[in-house]
Amino acid sequence: MNGANGTNGIGGRIRRAFSGRRIVIALPYLFLLAFFLFPFLIVGKISVSEMDAVAVKDLFSVADGSLRMNLKLSNYAFIAEDSLYLQTYLSSLRYAAATTVLCLAIGYPFAYFMARAKSSRQPALLMLVMLPFWTSFLLRVYAWKGLLTEHGLIANLIIGSGLDHGLAFAGLIPAPGKLMNTPFSLVLGMVYTYLPFMILPLYANLAKMDLRLLEAAADLGASPWVAFWKITVPLSKAGIIAGAMLVFIPCVGEFVIPELLGGPETLMIGRVIWDEFFSNNDWPMASTVAVVMILLIIVPLAVFNKYQAEAQEHGR
Amino acid sequence: MKASRFNLWFARAWLAAGYGFLFLPIVALLVYSFNDSPLPNDWRGFTLRWYRALGDDGEIIAGLWLSLKIAFLTACGSVVLGTLAAFVLVKYKRFGGRTLFAGMVSAPLVMPEVVVGLSLLLMLVSAQRVLGFPERGMMTIWFGHLLLGMAYATVVVQSRLQDLHPQLEEAAMDLGARPAQVFWLVTLPMIAQSLAAAWLLTFTISLDDVVLSNFLSGPGSTTMPLVIFSRARLGLNPSVNAVAAITVAVVSVGVLITSYLIARAERQRTLDLAAAARA
């Protein structure tokens, strides 16, 4: 970077190359290049490779003195033609979107009330949101299996109150009385798991808000409701976007929750990748499905990174 | 007046319902773990037999031991890498490829684990074909967990580094300390609590991970979450409840003690700073 002043010879150049600053940057950078970026390039490569009996064939091969490139695009064509893949992508996006909306609807008022609670109570309230976060996610999802199974605690509550008829009417469960292994149990599990990811950035944002703005609005005649929609909500936009992305993106590719709570009928793309890889042993197909999924989430991912970077700049 | 009292009760009810939702499954697991029936929906009285059975469960114990080893290594490695990355992001505002770096640090936070696991595994398999190593096993799981842990550690340490007043570091530099000395003698003691928090967080994330571990594990390297997951997939299993109850107890006590210690250290630091300012 500052190779221009190479006046003090090789020794100086080497010393600069190994300066503390360079090393501090290079260590995490090289780790991420090797273990994050490079693997994605490999997935891209394998998605267009042919597979022989045990391993993936090389993209280039030399046969009869000529270089051959074995590019196989049929996986992509297959995904585009097979309506089951398309349906699975769409339903993953739908479930993720529904989860995000529900998390926002529950989490926004929750974070708002947390941020407006007595300041002496806020650390405890915050810790209570973090605590489930620290206890095993796998076990908490598993617990819902017991709660929603036939005659389980929550199942009895829902069925006893007749709510299951509403859920069946909304198409979330196939018939009244059956709660497990339905879109309902899947979305419930995802909302439950990802709710803290929505609450935490919203709380961080809302707790920082300058309350004098609301007083000013009240002095100028705005009702609390109007002030909320015109001041609080727009000011918390960064928190809403950060929270929504933290919920939406991982939900699109979620595997454990659909596997434990979704049953065989709910289509999720994370399970397709898993099955192509572990059951069918079709690495190129698994890679292709993964590449298309990355393309689907690349825009939300860019939005997330942009807001993450902005939060860094305005952090102080 | 009446409206504001209604608002207060509405806020309290919403918070109570929210916390109830978050904690209900945890409480349920605790209760079921003492249930003398293998089915959660009929209560047949108090028992400790699931805990006793756990002591003879070689699969779970071997898995737990492996998971603890990996979690320890992950936490240590993630804190080192995460601190470096946070330092780079906060202190070095301009260098080539900074945007790519920032993107790569935060992407594993949201990237679906299935994709990260698949790509890491395919990379490691390719590396194995060319270099002859690494075998799939504990080390490859560690690589995957490091990637995830580093992202979380960076967020935790970064938010602390941003809140630091640069004056203290500048003063040390004015007094002639070299950059490395400034870091070890001034910066590091001030961010120590966030390092402890990041260590614990990455430890628990590693201890809990299913998807990355499943892609990256080899024969004989089955971590505890993999054992639990394979049993939970088949249906409800009381041994899982007992594991859950123990995990919840250990984690809650650990988190309470640590947050108490962190709060105390924080208070002490504030007092010290105030004393220094008076002097």
- The rounded Rg of chain B comes to 23 Å
Counting DSSP E segments of at least 2 residues, the number of strands of chain A comes to: 2
What composes the largest sheet of chain B?
A: none
H-E order of chain B: HHHHHHHHHHH
CATH architectural grouping of the largest domain in chain A: Orthogonal Bundle
Gyration radius of chain A, rounded: 25 Å
- Helix- and strand-based class of chain A? mainly alpha
**How many strand elements of chain B?**
0
Task: Describe what you observe in this structure.
The complex is a heterodimer of chains A (316) and B (279). By secondary structure, chain A is mostly helical. Chain A has 2 domains: 6-69, no CATH class; 82-313, MetI-like (MetI-like fold, Orthogonal Bundle). Helices cover 72% and strands 3% of the residues of chain A. Chain A is built from 15 helices and 2 strands. In chain A, strand 1 (60-63) and strand 2 form a beta hairpin. Chain B is an all-alpha fold and 279 residues long. Chain B has one domain (33-278): MetI-like fold, CATH 1.10.3720.10. The interface between A and B is large, with 89 and 89 residues.
Quick structural overview:
Chain A has 316 residues and is mostly helical. Chain A has helices at residues 9-17, 20-47, 74-81, 83-115, 122-134, 137-148, 153-160, 163-169, 183-207, 212-219, 224-235, 237-252, 256-262, 269-279, 283-313, and strands spanning 60-63, 66-69.
